[in-house]
Amino acid sequence: MDNKFPNKISLNAKSVAIIGGGLAGVAAAWMLHCSGYKVVLIEKRPFLGGRAYSFTDSATGVEVDNGQHVFMRCFSEYISLVKQVGSFDKTKLQSSMNVEVRDSGGNIGVLSSSPLPSYLSFLPSFLFYRYLSISEKIKAILVLLKIKFIKNIQSEDLQNISFKDWLKNNNQSEKSIRNFWDLIILPTLNDHSSNVTTSMALMVFKTTLLGDRHASDIGFAQYGLSTVMGTPMKDKLVDCGVSLVLGKQVLGLKHSKGVIRELKLSDGQKIKADFYISAIPPFALMSLLPDSLKKTELGLAGTHDFSPIINAHIWYDKTVADFEWTAFINSPLQYVFNRSVISNLDQEGTYLTISISGASEFWSKTKEQLKELLVDELNKCLPLTASAKIKRFIIIKEQRATFRNLPGASINNRLKSATPLDNFYLAGDWTDTGWPSTMEGAVISGNLAAKAIIARDGSGN
Ligand SMILES: Cc1cc2nc3c(=O)[nH]c(=O)nc-3n(C[C@H](O)[C@H](O)[C@H](O)COP(=O)(O)OP(=O)(O)OC[C@H]3O[C@@H](n4cnc5c(N)ncnc54)[C@H](O)[C@@H]3O)c2cc1C
Q1: Domain boundaries, given as residue ranges, for the chain
Q2: Interval 174-199 mean pLDDT
Q3: What is the pLDDT of residues 394-416, one digit of tens each?
Q4: Which residue among 55, 63, 152, 303 is least enclosed by CB atoms within 10 Å?
Q5: Angle, nearest 10°, between helix axes 23-34 and 439-456?
Q6: DSSP 375
Q7: Which atom from ligand 1 is nearest to the alpha carbon of 445?
Q8: CA of 245 to the centre of ligand 1 (A)
Q9: Which ipTM was obtained for this model?
């Protein structure tokens, strides 16, 4: 995005209607507005932010996220958007990567970056990383070097083989996969290495640990996601004159002669524009498409699979931990965030969020079963919790949290922004960005759709 874009809309500005107010829709709206287009953004819920939102928990008065969201310094388009809406100061971003990894024995291993250049940067900490043997570390370093120099990560072979099998073929032990490789793959791809393509896993390693020295500095919202994203995004767009239609669902697309003619909204309203962007998840797009369009390549949107995330929110009456966040190995706790410390909450006790990625195996468990499992685990891993009282416990399950990157998928269902319809474009984390299902992927997709319209339309208005 570029601040030199004209900030005023000319009288003959072309119009764009965007369906979906997640990060993809917001990014597209912002870029098109900045390029002089008249933009209307339609979101079915009464707020922006899509899959990254928060609400105020009435029992505690605290803002609770639907799911802990983490970003890295390599999320450059996401960071740029958050900066442009003016809320980057409400995030925390490490000045250099540092991850504490705990186990139930009270041990802590650390992965951190050092002043060494680029991909060598995390090696010193890796040499002291306590959860792998010396020989496992040497083997892992050799594989990291191999990854660094693989040029074509999109080859058919790498698309077809699971990352776990690829790692095994490259001399990685089960322990090494569990204690190192999956520690990174599970939160970034929301699946275990056995369920992801090697191509996407290699993209993750090349972009983060093997990228620029600061690429994997870790960041997150300091306050609720809606305070940091949805609300300031809404304020910024409204201030700039973007029309927001919130709380109304797009129910249908009218099309003829290869172009979209209008959108039909849940309140009967019809919206006409010169261009249209769908920035909704693939299953939502499928329910919007008329049958004739489902027969085009757009129908591939219906072939995506999804992986769930479960977040548990626990309030203790005492201080039970002083870290901001930590990873756990060999535990369902996976990643634990201490929201009391992160948000500097002015409340007695500790509010912890446990984020469980690739959560299929826990999906059928009830709230009580999850509580028992997680509280037991916390008692083992963070012994201070055993003597503290639980004041409140919330479970939030997101079934279609992220799309999957399953190995061996025979079709490429990540569609490009341009569609068979002349004035209809696609955005959304699931489209063809090269990124996994992330906030960065979503913002990139919105920017790509906006740029495609600007390019199609000449130089913009
Ligand atoms: C629990 C959880 C944890 C996550 N953790 C991380 C993380 O740590 N890091 C990270 O980078 N990413 C994370 N993600 C993924 C990230 O949230 C998504 O990749 C990103 O928000 C997707 O944005 P989007 O705009 O593509 O789609 P969405 O956010 O799904 O936005 C689509 C919007 O369209 C609206 N909509 C749908 N149908 C219609 C219709 N017919 N009419 C009008 N509006 C409609 C929806 O209400 C929604 O607001 C997580 C996701 C979840 C659920």
Answers
A1: 15-52+224-304+410-456, 62-93+219-223+305-403, 120-211
A2: 97
A3: 999 999 999 999 998 767 899 99
A4: 152
A5: 40
A6: H
A7: 26
A8: 18
A9: 0.99
